[in-house]
Amino acid sequence: EDELRTITTDKDAYNKVLHSIGEVKHLESLRDDLCTKTTQLARKNIENANQIAELKNQCAIIRTTELAVAEEKFHELEKQEQELASLSPVALLENLRDAAHITDEESEKLYHLLVS
Q1: What is residue 2's three-state secondary structure?
Q2: What is the pLDDT of the chain when averaged over all its residues?
Q3: 13 neighbors 6 (Cβ within 8 angstroms)
Q4: Helix, strand, coil proportions of the chain in percent (round to 5)?
Q5: What's the angle, vertex CA 66, arms to CA 61 and CA 69, rounded to 5?
Q6: What SS3 state is found at 97?
Q7: Domain boundaries of the chain, sorted by first residue
Q8: Residue 91 neighbours by CB under 8 Å, 6+ apart
Q9: Where is the VPS37 C-terminal domain (predicted)?
Q10: Using CA atoms, how far apart are residues 92 and 78, in angstroms rounded to an integer?
Q11: DSSP 87
């Protein structure tokens, strides 16, 4: 009974009993281990920060240069596609029909001028 009273009233006695419990010792050991590992990871992250920044910069440079080349090639191919579309048999036939229609209209006008 005196021991319980001492533990509940004396902070040092309470801590001594608490820290003598096996589970508490184990938890303290786990806590210390986690703190050590967290510190190691933080140091690694700091060490890798410069390398990560450099790699991000390289990615940005590669992305912009390759993108510019790819866009230029895309626009060239797009222009070629438009040129080829205007030379397709369907487009040429349509142009011939339009030209024939205009020629027919002009011929009709000339005929009416000559007749009148």
Answers
A1: helix
A2: 91
A3: yes
A4: 95, 0, 5
A5: 130
A6: helix
A7: 2-115
A8: 85
A9: 2-112
A10: 20
A11: T
The residue behind tokens 């005196």 is: 2
Beta strands in 7-110 (DSSP E): none
Q: Give the tokens for residue 40.
A: 């190691």
Three-class secondary structure of residue 115 per DSSP: helix
Q: Which two tokens stand for residue 48?
A: 């890798």
* Locus of tokens 């990871």: 41
Q: Which of 18, 16, 36, 14 is nearest to 26 (CA)?
A: 18
* pLDDT exceeds cutoff 80 at 1: no
- pTM equals 0.38
CA pair distance 23, 30, nearest whole angstrom: 10
Helix ranges (DSSP H) in 1-116:
2-9, 11-20, 22-86, 89-115
